[in-house]
Amino acid sequence: MVILIMLRTFDPKKYLETKADFFPALKAAFQEDPGDGSLIASTLSDIVKAYGITTMAKDTRLSEEHLAQALTDQNTLDLATLLKVTEALGFELHVVPSQDTSTSASA
């Protein structure tokens, strides 16, 4: 017996239609990132595509070329770009204590 399964290409933009959709996606990316920033960069890329790269360029005062490069090559996503993009989306980045208190830093 042969079972055929049809798989469709997942398009995250289908689920990222409004700014309200962006927050849970970005929050999950920060929580689930393997530690190299790849999931955060990929998610931001999907969000910027859904938001519109031209609109994002205007809102961040960054060039479309800079945004495209920064969001397609995870190694070029610098902190300044991350902060400008998240601010344009209406988000703030905050540092909070880890839930794992066993890794607390000593002064």
Residues in β-strands, percent: under 5%
Which residue ranges are poorly predicted, with pLDDT under 50 across at least 5 consecutive positions?
Answer: none
Q: Quick one: overall form?
A: globular
Summarize the main sheet.
none
The level of helicity is 40-55%
Q: Write the element-wise H/E pattern from the N-terminal end onward.
A: HHHHH
Distance between the termini: 65 Å
Total strands: 0
Give me the Rg, rounded: 17 Å
- Would you tell me the structural class of the helices and strands? mainly alpha
Compute the number of helices. 5
Overall mean confidence score, pLDDT: 86
Explain what the structure shows.
By secondary structure, this protein is mainly α. It has helices spanning about 20-30, 40-50, 55-60, 65-70, 80-90. Helix 1 packs antiparallel against helix 2 (about 40-50) and helix 2 packs antiparallel against helix 4 (about 65-70). The longest helix has 14 residues, at about 20-30. The N and C termini lie far apart (about 65 Å). The relative contact order is 0.12. The model has no long low-confidence stretch (mean pLDDT about 85).
Please summarize what this structure is.
By secondary structure, the chain is mainly α. It is 51% helix and 0% strand.
List keywords for this structure.
107 residues, single chain, 5 helices, mainly alpha
